[in-house]
Amino acid sequence: MSWDAWIVFALFWLVFVTTPGPNAVNCITNGMTLGFRRALVGVLAILTQAALFLGLSALGVTALIAASPAAFTVAKLLGAAFLIYLGVRGWIMAKRPVAVDSRPASSVYLRALAIATINPKSVAGYLAAFSQFVQPDVPIWSQMGVIVPTALTLTALSYTGFTALGAGIGRAALGAVFNVWVRRVMGACFIVYGLLLGSAATPGRT
Predict the structure, then answer these.
(1) Which of 9, 29, 138, 165 sits at a 20 to 30 Å CA gap from 88?
(2) CB-CB contact of 169 with 182 (8 Å)
(3) Is 148 exposed, middle or buried (0-12, 13-18, 19+ CB in 10 A)?
(4) What percent of the chain lies above the pLDDT cut of 90?
(5) Number of C-alpha atoms within 13 angstroms, CB side, residue 174?
(6) Residue 178 predicted with pLDDT over 60
(7) Where does residue 142 rank: exposed (0-12), middle (13-18), buried (19+ CB within 10 A)?
(8) How far apart are CA 83 and CA 55, in angstroms?
(9) How far apart are CA 116 and CA 159, in angstroms?
């Protein structure tokens, strides 16, 4: 990958991971309820998903998934239901006093991994990255040596930032009316993302 191509890829990926979506909302929510350090487990889960999808994209698996309407439909409906459930639960729980979340790290990790994996933005983003930036006449694994570190670094910085934002909001609004509305907004975002996911078209199709 040339220097110019790397710059373009890095800018694309920066926009990709900083555009607010389910992962960002989950990181903000985790930061609010868990505190910054404990919430970083969620960022680790997102990085796990990113590494997995990068590998699958290199092997062409994500393209095969996107090309299968049946598989995509089942996955998107399950994902939509999960996000809507999280949103409704978050809205209902918003009135309860904020307390330190006692969930074990494994629960935080698995929830974040599930949210990251079912996000159709991920499939579309990885397909776009590999269709636009990978050169077919260059060995794929030599290109991955540049793509993977760049993507994972930008992903880590972005979602660590969202987590820090949530932790800051949690400290500033703890026990305040504002906190209830912030948590309701987070819940509403999950519901909206779930509805959008349920109505999403297969990536690469119209």
Answers:
(1) 165
(2) yes
(3) middle
(4) 21
(5) 13
(6) no
(7) exposed
(8) 25
(9) 12
Q: Render pLDDT for 127-173 as a digit per residue (tens, 0 to 9).
A: 666 666 666 666 777 778 888 899 999 999 999 999 999 888 777 65
Give φ, ψ of 19 to 5 degrees: -70, 120
| Per-residue pLDDT at 187 exceeds 60 | yes
* Of 2, 114, 134, nearest in space to 57 by CA: 134
- What is the Cα–Cα distance from 116 to 200, expressed in whole angstroms? 16
**Total Cβ atoms within 10 A of residue 140:** 15
Q: 200, 151, 183: which is closest to 15 by C-alpha?
A: 151
CA distance 70 to 49: 22
Dihedral of CA atoms 8, 14, 20, 23 in degrees, nearest 10, equals 120
Q: For residue 117, which of 69, 172, 76, 166 has the smallest C-alpha distance?
A: 76
Q: CA 47, CA 52: separation in Å to the nearest integer?
A: 8
